[in-house]
């Protein structure tokens, strides 16, 4: 069996392992056309196995930004895409959106993206990238940014986050200021950083007000409609339900309204609700939803500027946390028996 030391592998060794000609290897390394996706993948796999570190260059960088998301629905993803499109035009960049479904390997999606050699990649709310995933992007020197990372990222990963803890704290504090003490919460998956931070802010506000935390009136969901609806039904069907619910995203809050209406409860007379995101249709609900605003415009701008600065070799802040703010509307009132 052939073994390889730490020396740089020869083109002939790469070709032998990939089962192609040396000229084909050269074309892949230098980003030339005329290679089928299957053959290119074979060569790139061989390069990875042999520890080949020379960047795979392309003759032309596409003036596009690729966005990767697991869910493309009204949980913040659509707002990010919308604002990225606006900022893309200002930078004369196109925007391409990729949905990588939960459970599907990101590797396949990334291989398609690097074959297009974009100016950069924005990755939203995905789990930790594997070393192979990172290697694919780095092999083409494609700048990439994690927006709202699910896991705690490595120090060398470019990130843009929002102040989720303060958002959760202010949402809960607002309910307390209106006289609520039995405040339920529907969180996102507690393996995600945003859900952990928002729920931690909720707990901190309760502690500051001297209110005992009652785990019986909290539920874990997944930021999606079905899970939010089930969680809301579970809370409202309790013998002694909460008088207010902090929904850790607006999509969940919409389903709290739905569950409340089905049970003859009025918002805010019978139940106060606060959301998180400030996305459509929050301002158009009846009553309009009090929520925590995520600055999606600033997120999109920061992500694209970071990518373009890295592409141009300019110094840039690689870790950005943007503020959130409470938007008070009509979904909170004093508890009926308060």
Could you walk me through the main structural features you see in this protein, from its secondary elements to its overall organization?
One of its GO terms (molecular function) is DNA-binding transcription factor activity. It comes from Bifidobacterium catulorum. Keywords: DNA-binding, Transcription, Transcription regulation. The chain is of the alpha/beta class and 338 residues long. The chain folds into three domains: 39 residues, no CATH class; 129 residues, Rossmann fold (3-Layer(aba) Sandwich); 131 residues, Rossmann fold, CATH 3.40.50.2300. Helix content is 40%, strand content 17%. The protein has eleven helices and twelve strands. The chain has a six-stranded parallel beta sheet, with helices on both faces. It has a six-stranded mixed beta sheet with strand order 7-6-8-9-10-12, with helices on both faces. β6, α8 and β7 form a beta-alpha-beta unit. The longest helix has 17 residues. It is elongated and about 80 Å long. It starts with 10 loop residues before the first helix and ends in an 11-residue tail after the last strand. The N terminus is likely disordered.
- Principal-axis shape equals elongated
Largest sheet: 6 strands, parallel
| N/C terminus separation | 78 Å
The number of distinct helices, counting runs of at least 4 residues, comes to 11
The mean pLDDT is 89
CATH architecture assignment name of the largest domain: 3-Layer(aba) Sandwich
Strand segment count: 12
Poorly predicted ranges (pLDDT <50, ≥5 residues)?
A: 1-5
- Encode the helix/strand succession as letters: HHHEHEHEHEEHEHEHEHEEHEE
Q: Would you give the CATH topology of the largest domain?
A: Rossmann fold
User: What is the radius of gyration?
Assistant: 24 Å
Please, what is the CATH homologous superfamily of the largest domain? Answer: Response regulator
Helices and strands: which structural class?
Answer: alpha/beta
The amount of helix comes to 25-40%
Percent range for β-strand residues: 15-25%
Strand order across the biggest sheet?
2-1-3-4-5-11
The CATH class assignment of the largest domain is Alpha Beta
Keywords: DNA-binding, Transcription, Transcription regulation
Protein name: LacI family transcriptional regulator
InterPro entries: HTH_LacI, LacI/GalR-like_sensor, Lambda_DNA-bd_dom_sf, Peripla_BP_I
GO molecular function: DNA-binding transcription factor activity; transcription cis-regulatory region binding
């Amino acid at each position: 069996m052939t073994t390889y030391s730490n020396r740089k592998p020869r083109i002939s060794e790469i070709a032998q392992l990939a089962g192609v000609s040396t000229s084909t290897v050269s074309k892949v390394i230098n980003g030339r056309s005329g290679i089928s996706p299957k053959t290119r993948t074979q060569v790139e796999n061989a390069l990875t196995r042999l520890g080949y570190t020379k960047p795979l260059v392309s003759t032309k960088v596409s003036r596009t930004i690729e966005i990767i998301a697991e869910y493309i629905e009204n949980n913040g993803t659509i707002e990010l895409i919308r604002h990225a499109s606006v900022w893309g035009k200002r930078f004369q960049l196109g925007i391409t959106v990729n949905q990588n479904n939960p459970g599907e390997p990101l590797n396949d999606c990334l291989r398609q993206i690097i074959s297009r050699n974009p100016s950069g990649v924005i990755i939203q709310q995905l789990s930790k990238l594997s070393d192979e995933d990172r290697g694919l992007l780095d092999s083409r020197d494609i700048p990439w940014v994690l927006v709202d990372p699910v896991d705690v990222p490595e120090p060398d990963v470019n990130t843009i986050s929002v102040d989720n803890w303060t958002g959760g704290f202010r949402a809960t504090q607002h309910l307390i200021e209106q006289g609520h003490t039995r405040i339920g919460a529907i969180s996102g998956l507690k393996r995600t950083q945003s859900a952990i931070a928002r729920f931690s802010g909720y707990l901190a506000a309760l502690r500051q007000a001297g209110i005992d935390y009652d785990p019986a009136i909290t539920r874990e969901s997944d930021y999606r409609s079905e899970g939010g609806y089930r969680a809301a039904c579970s809370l409202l069907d309790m013998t002694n339900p909460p008088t207010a619910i902090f929904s850790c995203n607006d999509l969940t809050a919409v389903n709290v309204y739905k569950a409340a209406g089905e049970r003859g409860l009025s918002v805010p007379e019978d139940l106060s609700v606060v959301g998180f995101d400030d996305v459509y249709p929050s301002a158009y609900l009846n009553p309009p939803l009090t929520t925590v605003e995520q600055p999606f415009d600033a997120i999109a701008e920061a992500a694209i500027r970071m990518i373009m600065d890295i592409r141009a070799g300019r110094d840039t802040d690689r870790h950005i946390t943007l503020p959130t703010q409470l938007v008070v509307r009509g979904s909170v009132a004093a508890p009926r028996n308060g």
